[in-house]
Task: structure prediction
Amino acid sequence: MADDSVERLQQQFEAEAPSARTPAEIKALRDKWLGRKNGALTELVKSIASKQPAERQSLGAASNALKKLAEQILDAQLANALAAAPPRDALDVTLPARRPALGRRHPLTQVRERVEDIFMAMGYQVISGPEIEDDWHNFEALNMPAEHPARDMQDTLYLSSPVPVPDGGRAATLLRTHTSGMQIRYMEQHEPPVRIIAPGRVYRRDQFDATHTPMFTQVEGLVVDEGISLGDLKGTLNAFAEEFFDARVATRFRPSFFPYTEPSAELDVECQGCSGRGCHLCKHTGWIEILGCGMVHPAVFDAVGYDSTRFTGFAFGMGIERLALRLYGVDDIRMFYENDLRFLEQVSL
Amino acid sequence: MKAPVSWLREFADLPASASVAGIAERIAGVGFEVAGLEGEVIDFEITANRPDCLSIRGLAREAAAAYGVQGPAVLGSGGPAVLGSGVPVTIESDLCGRYALALADVKVGASPAWLANRLAACGVRPSNNVVDVTNYVMLETGQPLHAFDVARLAGPEIRVRMARAGETLTTLDGQARTLDAAMLVIADRDRAVAVAGVMGGAPSEVSASTTRIALESAYFQPAPVRAASKRMGLKTEASSRFERGADPAAAVTALARALDLFEQIGAGRRVGGVTDVHPAPVAGRTVTLQRAPLDRLLGDVVPDADVARILASLGFVAAPAAGGWDVRVPTWRVDVAREADLIEEVGRHWGVNRVPATFPALHTAPRRSNAAVLRARRIRRLLCGAGLQEAVTFTFIEQAAASLFVAEPASLVSIANPLSEKFAVLRPSMLPGLLDALVYNRRRDLDDVRLFEAGAVFSTAGERQRVGWVLCGARLAHWSQPPAAVDLYDALGVAGVLTEAYTLACHTEPATDAPWFVPGRAAAVIADCGTGPQRIGTVGQLRPEIVDARGLSAGIVIAGELDVDVLRDTTVAGRRVTPLPRHPAAIRDLSILIDAGLPAAAVRATIRAHAPASLVEVREFDRYQGKGIPDGQISLSVRLTFQERDRTLTDAEVQQAVEIIVDALAGTHGAALRH
Result:
């Protein structure tokens, strides 16, 4: 019976010991078991005297062994606890860091560069050009002569008086309504083959509300070579859509009209919000229109002096704001121009 | 264009099983986007090149072709049986290609419900039976008609002529208008009674008391109609059709259709025959379609039979010819003038989605992107790395905001037709927009704002590329130290990041030509180019009045701008490194007392002018003013580094150099050495 009680006490001690981790907890445990007054093991040793002599020897040995073991364990735990305690000059590692200041590129820049990067990887050259344009480069060379009804599609902002351009060409009279003028300039200066991307700000006399802005960002592309076909346009844009959305997306081409392409089409991609089943994002059609495209109109080649019987080409253009709205799940286009840091700091670094 | 399906079915044998939505989708698939769908009415968006589809017959033809069923018969065949209405018609301008007129006795009243309902379904407000019939026929055929009250026509006779300078006409909308000599008008013997192709005049309007009408069906050239419509700010159902191009062959048949309808609904009866003045009948165009360009442009081979079927269903007459077809273009297809237009027709109805996707081959090495593009990309990354957030602000701003940031207000470029005063001029500087963005954030309790923007700025001299930045609040707020506000040197450092990235040696001078900065707190950044010094930017503290006026009180805002056209990329090519020195440098620190107004650059220049070639660097490391320093003076501490490439300098020669420098500073600036 006596051995039983020692064994039980040992089990009890061993169960309790690990939970004492700080020096204070260890001291409390030591008092409970080894305290001079009411320590459980002290009491055990005291009780031996009242036992039968036959029991005394074995009980005494067992009790002392347990006491020694308890002391060893508590000493070891105390040593560990003291070793783990932070030094006086310890730093509070939970305080905020001193982070070097970091800025982010604007979401519109990020989306635009993403588009540019995809086409650069396909061997396209990214070009730039003036934001104020003359009538020839913005309209006439693009098969939109004066009084052409298609000019209504792009309500134009005009300058009060002409502004000179650096290359000594025609003075600028308007804010470009698309970046196509750059493509005309490029073709005027280079022979085919052409594989270019023309990004930039464009301007239309549109109201400023949740879905319209008088200024937006466009990326246009142009390929001219011998034997370029509508099939090539489809293959290129399908590849672009897959890269851009980072997924195999279904696409569909709908015939449309632009004065500078013939045939013309609009490209829809399957709505990412509903996988084509129909939701409020795609107005329940299952499709989202992302760009306009087509085969370069021979009148455009005539305007820049390319032989339209020898060369063919395709062109496409997309609005970066509309892509960004989809990508970031934003429903008011004005957010891109407010420059609210709480918004801008949510996009990736 | 709103089209009730029941009306389309009158002209196209669409399958009975086809639903409204199905029909809408099929027609959308050949290029007519659906803007809305309500009951059996489909609202199609008609692109500017297809005036023929601003009509039920036109849309029915597309629908029939899409379904491969019988479509509407050609309008325009079959002329009037009786010639001559009795009203003389003269065309005095070639802007009018055809003018047909018929008289009818009418009983003006309400239209039957079926007719009024159809007009309403198409978005046209029903009026009286005479006007309703003209509108009905216009919607059905695409040919605008106009009815005059014959009793109100002087003569009666019709003259199609240019308006006389100063001639006036009150149009049907009640507006008294002064016409100009570039406008084509319909006139009676004495005066203008309608603006051709745009709107009729109120004096000859059909009214309840009208008993006889003259019904006009004409062809006007598109450009003058568009010009007149724009000048008067008046867009009508008629003008939107004429300005895109009406079908000159349809004039008389549309007139006949209207006369028949009058009889059918009991609104009136034709009187006499039809006057048809047609000075220059259009010769139908024939366009050659070759097989090789067709295959090449589409990247697909559409079988001969399908090419013929598609063209025929759209009203083209395709006759096989060597290597392709000679295609006669119907008069209503004003948009088809060359081979590519025919290829589009084939592609549209063959189905763009059926064309196999291919990938164009690269025949030459890709060219490097434009230097300006790569530079803008690099600038953005550099400044983001330097802790500034990119902003995107509008290119056009308020005149008042722009004026604050130019030395010469006459150099502003203004917009002739701005949307509002807020968007009236092109930005002459990046700063007004950036300041607005900064203020926007400060108003939302974001205290530490660092923004930049790269883009174009404008003046009457032209367009230039710039980068601008604005800073306010704490330099780097952290719990470990009291916040230190940003100052001029932070903004100068931003300029330094860019000039260093483009290895452009620069120095700064006080700027006095930028009145938007606080005097004494503005620096001109000057590049030491091979061609001599060139001003490339300005940095400073914005005047508090300007900041306050944008609605941010007591804010210290530091800003800068740099012209980036001078930054030329030399990152890889042309950047050879110098071998590292193998002998130790000797460093001496000097603290001198100088006038507080003496620029550090002057001290530096004196040191350099008197030091031996072994002086490799001069750097200020402390500037102190206050206790222990006489009034009006400062203590400036500079570190001098001496080094020779081929040997170790001796103490004696360094000491000698320092003594010469100290003497020169004393002699030139009265500088005393501080111990």
Summary: Chain B touches chain A through 93 residues (CB under 8 Å). The mean pLDDT of chain B is 92. Residues 300 and 355 of chain B are 6 Å apart (CA to CA). Chain B has 18 helices and 30 strands.
